[in-house]
């Protein structure tokens, strides 16, 4: 049973920093693609950052400000968020998936953690 538990959200002023954590069980973060998504009120969920076995990738709006990383020993993925802006306000979700067929996959999501950036 795969479980993802996020933590680290909160209220911060613009320009501040937060570090989100995603503790995983039932899956090894070292060998699986791990993503951070976010969803702002009234908006679609968007992919923010991805870490694979050897690469990281970011959506344009967070490049240079956010850093995704992992601690294999703790089986945890992190999202370091610096220079936060009010438009970063959203619920942040950790995600991973496993392929169940050639074109199908099963996604796993955490419960989400709220990030609020005040101006």
Give a verbal description of the structure.
There is one protein chain. The protein is mainly β. Helix content is 0%, strand content 55%. It is built from no helices and eleven strands. The strands form two sheets. Strands 2, 4, 5, 6, 9, 10 and 11 form a seven-stranded mixed β-sheet that branches. The model has no long low-confidence stretch (mean pLDDT 97).
Report how far the terminal alpha carbons are from each other.
Answer: 40 Å
- List the helices and strands in order: EEEEEEEEEEE
Question: What's the number of extended β-strand segments?
Answer: 11
Tally of separate helices:
0
The largest sheet, given as strand count, sense and whether it forms a barrel, is: 7 strands, mixed
Radius of gyration: 14 Å
The helicity comes to: under 10%
**Bulk shape:** globular
What average pLDDT do the residues reach?
A: 97
- Report the uncertain regions: none
Structural class: mainly beta
Strand content: over 45%
Fold blueprint:
Blueprint: E1 3-7, E2 10-13, E3 18-25, E4 34-39, E5 46-51, E6 56-58, E7 66-71, E8 76-81, E9 90-99, E10 105-109, E11 113-118
Parallel strand pairs: 2-11
Antiparallel strand pairs: 1-3, 3-8, 4-5, 4-9, 5-6, 7-8, 9-10, 9-11
């Amino acid at each position: 049973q795969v479980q993802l538990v996020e933590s680290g959200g909160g209220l911060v002023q613009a320009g501040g920093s937060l570090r989100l954590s995603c503790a995983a069980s039932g899956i090894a973060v070292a060998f699986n693609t791990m993503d951070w998504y976010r969803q702002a009120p009234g908006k679609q969920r968007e992919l923010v950052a991805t870490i694979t076995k050897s690469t990281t990738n970011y959506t344009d709006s967070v490049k240079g400000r956010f850093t995704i990383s992992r601690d294999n020993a703790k089986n945890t993925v992190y999202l370091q968020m610096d220079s936060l802006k009010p438009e970063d306000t959203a619920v942040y979700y950790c995600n991973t998936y496993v392929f169940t067929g050639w074109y199908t996959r099963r996604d796993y999501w955490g419960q989400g953690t709220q990030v609020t950036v005040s101006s």
